[in-house]
Amino acid sequence: MWLIMEIVEHVSVRIDHIKELFVDALNEGDSEEMKRKFGFAVRYHSDLLELGFYINKCFSSSMLCLILLGAAILGCASFGYMQAGSSTYLIVCACWFFGLAIICISGQHLTDESLSIGDVIYDTKWYEVGLSLRKDILFVMMRCQRPMILRAAGFGVMNYIMIVSVLRTSYSFVSLLGATS
């Protein structure tokens, strides 16, 4: 969980750098230098998107296990705490929730940061550049509307909504265990 959070923070720093590169390129006075800098920023952005693909490829099955096991363990440990009152159950709940929260908050942060690239480009004076570069800028802005996300093996996206979904499922486990006991 910490590794995924640190990777997302690294990608976030790279996204901030990409935003600076786009702004620097679009504020350049010389049109040839502007095209060169903009092309570099686009290639950098493309490489970062590819890195996001590999992050999902490496960690999506782990995140799926975290979701599935987390919901069951949170539900069973919560029920155990309500029945026995032991602080051990409470610690288990806190640790699993903390791990889930780390991943989901990191996923939401990644999504928000990647969407902000288009906003930064839009806030520049992109409409004052040449027509050919303006078309390239519009393509980049359209691509920035599709955010980078952390996936849980096709099961869902790791974000704030996933935290709520897992907690709802955990509550269902608590209700089921309460009804059967």
Overview of the structural elements:
With 181 residues, the chain is mainly α. It has one domain. The protein contains five helices and no strands. The relative contact order is 0.17.
Number of strands: 0
Q: What's the mean pLDDT score?
A: 93
Shape from CA axes?
elongated
Distance between the termini: 34 Å
| Tally of individual helices | 5
* Classification by helices and strands: mainly alpha
How many whole angstroms does the radius of gyration measure?
Answer: 22 Å
Uncertain spans: none
Largest sheet composition: none
How many domain regions?
A: 1
Offer a few descriptive terms.
mainly alpha; elongated; single chain; 5 helices; 181 residues
Task: Describe the protein's topology.
Layout: H1 2-26, H2 31-84, H3 87-122, H4 131-143, H5 160-180
Give a short overview.
The protein is mainly α and 181 residues long.
